[in-house]
Amino acid sequence: MAKILSLRLNYKDKFLDYAKEGKEIKKSFTVGSNKFMQWQILDPKFPDKHVLVKKKGGEYVLNMLPGAKLSVEKGGNSVDANYLKQNNLLSMNELTLKEDMKGTLSLAPDWEVEFEYRTPWVVVLTPEEKAIVAQYARRARPDAVARFNRTVILLVLALTIVFSIIFELFLKPEYKTQADTISELLQSMEQKAQKVEVSKLDAPTTGYDVPPPVEEVTGDDAAPTTGAASSGAARPSGPSGLGAAMGGFDPNAVSAAPTISIVTVATGFAVNRPGGGRPGSGSGTGGSGAGGGAGSAGTVFDPTALPVSGDVGSVATQGPRTSGSLTRPEGAVGTHVTGDASKLAPSGKAWGDIVAQQRIEAEYRQMGLSTVTEASIGTLDEAGKAKYASLKDQVESRKGQIETVYREMQIRQSVSFTITIFVGADGSVRESKVVPNGQYPEAFVAKVKQVVDSWRFNVREAMPYQFRMRAG
Fold it and tell me: Does residue 216 lie in a domain region?
């Protein structure tokens, strides 16, 4: 019988679980620190997901993390890395597994995996065991109580079906259509409708007394008065003489000015481009004037001199939970409200030093190196395909670091990035272009770029590579 691949997970030299070819191991077998993995490695430095074993060219390949410890026996003899490389068994971080090989791979401190090809064992039953299986493998014959219960259930089911048929054919009442019901409802409403007459109500009285009519004094008893005296005698009564003369206005009943909330909302701001000056500087050639001074002879628009942003910390992005108004209040006391001024990185634009990124990209183009994407690896020649396939696998094993940043910063939305890395001949990332495909907090985007810039790969030549990253 052919041997099958068997994996054994140990923690501190104690057995935890098996994984066998054909059952747990199909085309590949993935482990990780994710709680949904079958083998969860409880180590914060271990990737969220890592393809431990995968089938390649009809054989299984063991995928090792950088710096992992490996011990291998082939044909019963212990071999080293040089022997494996000379026999084309070890390439980069991939070990081709043969049937005469077994060994141990260290995944993390205190975590290791043993791999070996084993012959599956088959249980051979003795005649006594076969007799026991034959005795208890068939269903027991029902007794009298079980037969009675089954008969009652079948009878009740048959009567239910018969009653349902009779109800549908003969006993089901006829329901009126919706149109008939609505027409009858309208008729009943018209019959019950009554004419309602509203009695005339007296006009509401105001809180001020109506001034009495001025009585004119005639005859000999009338004393001569001046214009001022006449107006004083005709002054109406009320809460105050001046208020009554002004149409019932009482100046003593005036309340204080209402207090309103003034909210400044940040709708956008800009900063100077590199090399641009502040607006209104007055410098320039040709017909430029004093840069905003009165009586200037002329001005010239400078597209590089964008306005400098003000104090963003005093701008409110969330106002009070009150209804607003488009009319500017007059004569009210204002309370200025400030709020959270958290900023979002713009979508579709690379984060970081754009000048340095463009310089590195131009340098790679001068070297005749074009950026290779995940989808275009298959179009390369055999040598290029092997190099970029190895780089892609190394990138996939490091994506868990970005997902760890996503979880630590508690981003409450799904995120997506288009990341271009310029790998140097020593394997380090010389520069990276991190382009967010959406508006995410600047601190999160900066942290993602910091993680990408810290990567180091097992390569021996400069390689520009672009991939997509999703989380959440």
Answer: no
